[in-house]
Amino acid sequence: MPIKMKELPESEKPYEKLEIYGAKKLSNAELLAIIIKTGTKSDSALNLAQKVLALNDKKDKNNLTFLRELTINELTTISGIGRVKAIQILALAELSKRMLTPIKTNDQKIKTTEDVANLFISEMCNEEREIAKVIILNAKNVILKILDLSIGGTSYAILEPKIVLAEAVKMQAPKIILVHNHPSGDPTPSEQDYQATDRIFEAASIMGIDLLDHVIIGKNNQYESIMFQKKKRRRDY
């Protein structure tokens, strides 16, 4: 028989535990239980939270990005999780994603590969699909715009020169930087990465646009610069 929340010691109840020890001391289930708020006759909020976490089919059970991929229908298959609780959980997942997005990119200058990596590591390092972005810069390397280019599967996001360059051409921007992640966690460039970079570099040159770099984001704060690897560019811009 599951232990009811009211049967727990005060110091072990999620609300009280957070208040006493701080949010960092709570488990994933305890934090989620606070969002769920109330349980049912047969399940406490903590038990319901554990059932939600059990929907995670990823290898890394501590990777909570799966919450962003769930639907209301999937969540409501759990007895005790109704439409409102499902919406609360999905809202939380989206908020957490937005919190990782840089607050301000206007007037931000990109000087090095590290600057690029710092912009995107938090957002992209735990993505299960390959995502590609383009940073559009002015002549002084100040960010004008950041665009999502494509979302691939677990192995490759397609990078077509005409898609990559379209907005930069429209804005008459002189410089761009490509960024994408490797869901495997290893940022080492693949042969496909090199080929795509060469195609885009050549097409950009024809259009008078300088491809400064192509940065690959991995896990554990790892990243690689394809342009640095190929020695077409120095690590600093």
Structural features, described:
With 237 residues, the protein is an alpha+beta fold. The chain is built from ten helices and five strands, in the order αααααααββαβαββα. Strands 2-1-3-4-5 form a five-stranded mixed β-sheet, with helices on both faces. α8 runs parallel beside α9. It is elongated and about 70 Å long. It starts with 13 loop residues before the first helix and ends in a 7-residue tail after the last helix.
What is the overall shape?
A: elongated
Strand count, sense and closure of the main sheet? 5 strands, mixed
**Radius of gyration using CA atoms only:** 22 Å
| SSE order | HHHHHHHEEHEHEEH
Secondary structure category: alpha+beta
* Cα distance spanning the termini: 62 Å
Number of strands: 5
Percent of residues in helices comes to 40-55%
Whole-number mean pLDDT: 86
Question: How many DSSP H or I helices?
Answer: 10
Low-confidence stretches: none
Strand content: 5-15%
Give me the side-by-side strand order of the main sheet: 2-1-3-4-5
Brief synopsis:
It contains ten helices and five strands, in the order H-H-H-H-H-H-H-E-E-H-E-H-E-E-H.
